[in-house]
Write a structure and sequence with these properties.
Farnesyl Diphosphate Synthase; 295 residues; globular; mainly alpha; two-stranded antiparallel sheet; homodimer
Chain lengths: 295, 295
Amino acid sequence: MMPAGFDAWSRAALAKVEQALDLWVPADAPGGLGEAMRYGVLDGGKRLRPLLVLAACEAVGGDAVTALRAAVAVELIHAYSLVHDDMPCMDNDVLRRGKPTVHVRHGEALAMLAGDAMQALAFEVLTSGEEVDLSTQARLCGLLARAAGHAGMAGGQAIDLASVGKPLAEETLREMHRRKTGALLKVSVVMGAACGAAGPQAASALEAYGDAVGLAFQVVDDVLDVTQSSAVLGKTAGKDQQQNKPTYVSLLGLEGARAYAHALQRRAHAALAGSGLTETSALSILADMVVRRES
Amino acid sequence: MMPAGFDAWSRAALAKVEQALDLWVPADAPGGLGEAMRYGVLDGGKRLRPLLVLAACEAVGGDAVTALRAAVAVELIHAYSLVHDDMPCMDNDVLRRGKPTVHVRHGEALAMLAGDAMQALAFEVLTSGEEVDLSTQARLCGLLARAAGHAGMAGGQAIDLASVGKPLAEETLREMHRRKTGALLKVSVVMGAACGAAGPQAASALEAYGDAVGLAFQVVDDVLDVTQSSAVLGKTAGKDQQQNKPTYVSLLGLEGARAYAHALQRRAHAALAGSGLTETSALSILADMVVRRES
């Protein structure tokens, strides 16, 4: 797939994801909950995780209906984590995706509830309808629950909280990011692969790819926090330094962090090359996008 | 089962539930997350929902291993909702189960994360191991996700938030409680039934039973908030009136609310009587306990 082919593929994929999110996130949930959920999920975000799910599914020739469910579920978990992360008791951020954050717009109580309901909705989406067989539903629920919970995203956020103002060894920093951001990016690839019947070689190659892309994403995030403006990022820039948070930039320096991101990009490509899969060009380009992105 | 038999049954059931919670909620989750999760879940609570799961499973001759997983998962959802409910942006409560609330002890950020991780853990528990077949895992995940999310508990909490200080019609009040407290109590019974092969008549009787018990629980909660002290309740008493929240007592008066609770108790018994099931005595006594409880 050439970049032109990828553009058409990603446009079509994004349209499907937006439409599915719009269908799944209820407008009529009571007490303003539906509005708060929709405000937190729709019309924003790069949808990187859904694209990884769909691309990995295609790489293994998996079922597209199942993959779209998985893509929606992963994005709901990601979006809920942003809603809760932005709240005053966590990062206290007022700007996200270029708009006021959910608690600024809808109040803290409804923001917390909306996040909670978005997490539940992710598992509702994975277990709805009869198009997806029950054993795949169960496998996808299990993968997502582990990536979202104490051993994954929530655990990484707790390390992050506990580490503010402390120097961290590279190993601890990597462990924090592997859980906080990496786990959900990696599980996007793994869930996509679980929508088909990947052999053990392909499955472990896709896992290695997901691991490298997940870590690269966070390294680049740390770089962008230093080098870009809030206007470009659509969220408050320079927060890591301001909050004295350990980052790859504080650990490796700006050039060191950039070099590390490129090394991870090469590692992602190498995993695909050794995967035995043929249709991996969308995954390949997604890895490039993660490293080259400017916001 | 006579009350004496029930005492032995419930002691054994509670011991199993406490042991399973202790095994499942990790002590070693990083950044203090494990401690906060365990503080919010262990050593407290009446474990009414787990008891309903186990009793309903026994009523249909279901699988005890599956039911224990379901019991732990439901209690994790209940416990996470209390942790988030108690936070300053919601009910701002400092006392729960006779102890300082999680955010008082561990800080708001970790309390929010612990609640988030407890919700994920519920789905992790339901999808772990090979003792439970994958299709049952998927069914249980789906039931729990719907009961916890926008159409259930989270939706009811949003109605509650939106209704503070407003007079509510009985129908709206019932709808709020049916979602906020009732959905999780009812799904406890339904998930217990899903651990076996209940016929349609038994399944719908158990649903009706769960519906009546769920509503009765909330009516009694409203009564106790007025009639009991904080010391007896282990949480702050008199909060509904202080926050000008609509309750069954404000709608029906104290005697009216008590009479309604007894009517629901009779409805629960009637559902069991018409269920065609024989082993329903634990469920029958649990319905009585819900209405007669004094804390």
